[in-house]
Amino acid sequence: MKNLLYLLLASTLLLLSCQPKTNTNKFVGTWNDLQIPSGYAQLKINSKENTFSYKSGGNGTKTFSKGHYEIIGDSIALTSLNASDIDGCYIILPFGQCYFKNLRQTKLNCQPSKTEFYDFFDNDIFYLKNNSLFHRDNPNEKCPDTTVHKFVKSK
Description:
By secondary structure, the protein is mainly β. 10% of the residues lie in helices and 42% in strands. The termini are far apart.
């Protein structure tokens, strides 16, 4: 009887350990910014190794980024890979800024692309509100209200 009880307990533990793990990270998925007139922006937050990728475009130009994220309370902080780790020569655009000052390039002494740019996330904070992902703007930037980044999750 005792052996049967141990067998039943071991079987139950084995079955429970084989259950698929459900992802509890509410940020994981593909998010689309619907606020961009005549363009697109897509943010993919991956569960694997806490990575993300970003791409946007419109009016003949496009941007991209990739990096890592950290969950901080009910927010997510995105940080791009170091520009020197990016293949190619691009102008670096700080994400979320509406006025660009002191622009840099991903490589020194190269001719940067005029149509593709590297969007750099520098510990940029996003938060969820009403099933949308919002970028927490830098209060020192004083951007107009039209530059709000609001992403909705793809099904």
